[in-house]
Every structure is written in C-alpha cells, then in structure tokens.
Amino acid sequence: MDATRVDWSMGSQAARLADWDAALAIGRRVAGPGIRVPPAERARMREDFAELVSFAEEKITDFTGLDAGGFRSRAWVMGRGEWIRANLGGLQRMLEPLAGRILAKQSGHGTFRRKALGAQAGGLLGYVSRRVLGQYDAFLPPDDEGLLYFVGPNVAEVEQRFSLPSRDFRLWIAVHEVTHRVQFGAAPWLRGHIRAQVDRYLGTISLESMDFGQQLRRAIEEARAGADLRGMGGLFLLLNEEQREIVRHVQGVMSLLEGHASYVMNEVAKDHVQDLARMRKALSERRRHAGSVERSFQRAIGFDKKIEQYDAGERFVREVVSDSGMEGFNRAWLAPEGLPTVEEIAEPSRWIARVAGS
Hints:
Elements: H1 14-17, H2 20-31, H3 39-64, E1 74-78, H4 80-104, H5 111-129, E2 134-136, E3 147-151, H6 152-162, H7 166-186, H8 189-204, H9 209-224, H10 241-269, H11 276-288, H12 292-301, H13 303-329, H14 342-346, H15 348-356
Parallel strand pairs: 1-3
Antiparallel strand pairs: 2-3
C-alpha cells in the first residue's frame, strides 16, 4: 500500500467531508503572499510580539482584575498560508458533529462535492487572511492553549501604508488578542458554552430538501410582511425559531467579547501607546477603502456585523464600567446567566439591573 495514501485522520468524519488539501491550495492562491517582509524584519517582528504579548498580559490583568491562568500567552507570527492552514484545522473540528450526518446521506465518494466544499472554504479563508491582523483561537487543542496568531505581512502592510510606529502598533493589536485569551482563561466555562451553542446549531440543520423549502417559503412571507431583522441580516429569515434563538444569543456573546477587547485595548493603550487616535483612524480608513464588490462580499460573509459587534460591545462595556465599576462589569464572566443578550447590549441599563445590580 502507498504510504502517502494512508488515512491519518483517526476516523474524523470532517476530514472526509471536503478536500482540505484543495482548500489550502485555493486559499493560498486567493490570499497571495502579501508584501515582502525581509528576513531581518520578520525576526524583529517575532521578537517584538513575543515580548509585547507577555507585557500586554500583565497590563491587562492589572487593568481588568482578570487572570488568564494556565500557560502564559505566546505569539506565533505567521504568513497568510499558515493562518489559512490553522483555521482550516479549526473548521474541521467545528464541523465534526455535522459531517457524520452529511456523509451518512451521501452515496459514493462524492469527489465533486468534496472539491466544491474545499474550494468554498479555501476561497473564504483566503480572503479573510488578507484582512486579519491577529487572532486568538479559543478552540485549539489543550497543548496549544495560549497561542496567539499574528499575520506578519498584514501587520507590516498596515504599518507601512499608514506610517505607524511599529512597536506601538504591535502592542496595541497584541492587547486586543491577549484580552480574548484572558477572557476565556478567567471564565473556564465560556469555551464549553460557546462550543455547545455551535454544536446545538449544527444539530438543528435539516438535510431534507422539503424542510429547506418550507423555511424558504416562510422567509419570503416574512420579508413581504416587513420583518424586523434588528440588524441580523437577510439570511436570518432562513433560520427556524430555534436557530434564531441560538444566533441571537451568540451575537450577544460575541458583542461582549469583541467590545470588551476593544475597550481594554484602547484604555490600556492610553498609558503605553503614542498617537492612539492616528492608529484608530488608520484601521477605520483601511476598512472604508474596500471597493464596492469587496464591500458586498464583506456583508455576505458578515464582516460588517463583526465591526458592529466591536462598536456596540465597546459602548456596552464603557457604560457598564462607568456605572458599576470594573468589579460590577466582571460579573459577566461568572456564569452563563451573566452574559448579556442582544437587547441588553443595546440597552446596558437592562443588564446592569439584572446582573451588576443584583
């Protein structure tokens, strides 16, 4: 038997769901290498992030009163292709519960389906890899806990394009990603809670064409009746009631996580980063300068919603901390019951009355 053809997936259903090698190849083609970063500058960037991530963790703990626990945070400065590979692995782990159900209904090897799914996943991650600066992956295997990704070519491109001071900019984005790591470390239940929501959502997906047809007809009827989407997007109409409940809950959680990271990022930076206003303006301009086709694609994949989560979540955190102090806000990390709803993100006083004031 050809050793190169041995299946090392250890029985993973998701490994057989798509052609992940094709996904990686397509993702890399879509991504491109980014700007050229000389070897000496790559080495300097690795040294900077290694030092700054450790520094950021100390400052975040002092400012928030939260402790990440476990391993110290560690930086991995990578290229776009490495980022795509890492996130394809995460996607496989996420899809495992659904993959078995899909494969059970398929006949034959489904080569075309596998390549089509791989192309879609690769194309999407290839595009995202051109935009992302840093990432904390909350669902890495235990041995990799504490790893933070920084996409070197993208960081260098922003620094050069907007003439930003490298060390200050790197500290600023490091604080954001380390804050995510601290959130999950301070709330050990949070990782399992989010994973349970994802698994629950995947479990609600019907593979029957009749069920999809019914959802499509209902979506058309709701659209004609002027359904209130509350910023959820047109695809929200295609979800059933249970799926909508899950999506609303997860949107509230993500607004909390992103808003808190943005709040901490900007508050900690005040004492350690020069010209913070120019950095914020640079990232805002970077988002605005996408072409019309690219902006349409961003809306389709939810990029615009992520920015809204940053803004709405940061307003929520700022108002709660102003009213109840950091200790009152930190009640959000005690248990799932303390997580804000979408409605509470929009009206922080409701969360304060329910949680911080209790």
